[in-house]
Design a protein that fits this description.
Largest sheet: 6 strands, parallel
Strand order of the largest sheet: 2-1-3-4-5-11
Low-confidence stretches: none
Strand content: 15-25%
Mean pLDDT: 96
Helix content: 25-40%
Number of helices: 10
Structural class: alpha/beta
Shape: elongated
């Protein structure tokens, strides 16, 4: 499978290049960076810290989509929307790990699934997706006497909050309780907030250092607390999951899929 990486100069992009080169049945066929990037024209393998691949990084995503079987995308919301349109134009596999999407951006990406095979995940790791399933099941069992809080911590460079993974977990809890997530989500507290509203799903965000990603879902009632957690020690787990998603999508019809589909963790 020929896999291209958009945003190949970033932390995840470099990790993906290395992961693809050591995965049986996949090759790196190209990578892009936006205009003005200092990585344009560089060898994609050397930039990733591996052997030279004699593939020059370009600023032309259209050409990359045209020659790739699949594209892996951990870029920005605006860029990902445009990449999804290219995937639809060329009928390609588009694996999306981008977070921070607005409802409107998500709607555009979903629409592209009519002509592309889109696999989208707020988090590509097996452990986090298992945590989401556990969260859904626990939330379904425990009534609203148990307050739900989602705590997450990431490195100082992360630009969106709460993290896409935290929102994935909160939405799993809401699904378990059969409530509308956006109606019960409390995404920020400051000042005199009043008492906690029964049934809300709260979010707490920490940023600092080089933390790859720590997530905990807390179910708190009178005199007892249940916590389920996942700690990521290396971004390689996300790269492995994304490459696995691309391979899984190889023979799938056009449509919109998620990591639960890839990992066989759906209901």
């Amino acid at each position: 499978m020929k896999i291209g990486i958009v945003g190949c100069g970033g932390r995840m992009g470099r990790m993906l290049v290395a992961e693809i080169t050591k995965t049986k049945g996949t090759i790196v066929c190209g990578g892009t960076e936006p205009d003005g990037s200092p990585f344009l024209g560089k060898d994609i393998g050397l930039l990733a810290g591996i052997e030279p691949l004699t593939i020059e990084i370009t600023n032309d995503p259209r050409a990359l989509f045209e020659k790739s079987d699949a594209i892996i995308d951990f870029t920005s919301p605006m860029a990902t929307v445009e990449h999804a349109k290219l995937a639809a134009e060329y009928g390609k596999i588009h694996v999306i790990g981008t977070t921070g999407l607005s409802n409107e951006e998500q709607t555009e990406i979903t629409a592209s699934g009519s002509d592309a095979t889109i696999v989208q995940g707020a988090n590509m790791s097996l452990g986090v997706n298992l945590l989401a399933q556990l969260t859904k099941k626990v939330a379904a069992i425990l009534d609203d006497e148990f307050d739900i809080e989602v705590l997450e911590m990431h490195h100082r460079h992360k630009v969106d909050a709460p993290s896409g993974t935290a929102l994935l977990l909160g939405k799993a809890a809401a699904e378990g309780r059969q409530v509308d997530h956006d109606s019960v989500a409390d995404r920020g507290r400051d000042g005199i907030t009043g008492a906690r509203k029964k049934g809300d799903i709260g979010y707490a965000v920490l940023r600092g250092g080089n933390v790859v990603g720590d997530h905990t879902v807390m179910f708190a009632a009178e005199n007892e607390i249940i916590e389920i957690s996942h700690k990521a020690g290396d971004r390689a787990i996300f790269a492995r999951g994304a490459v696995r998603a691309a391979l899984w999508a190889k023979d799938k019809p056009h449509g919109n899929y998620d990591m639960m589909d890839v990992l066989g963790l759906g209901d």
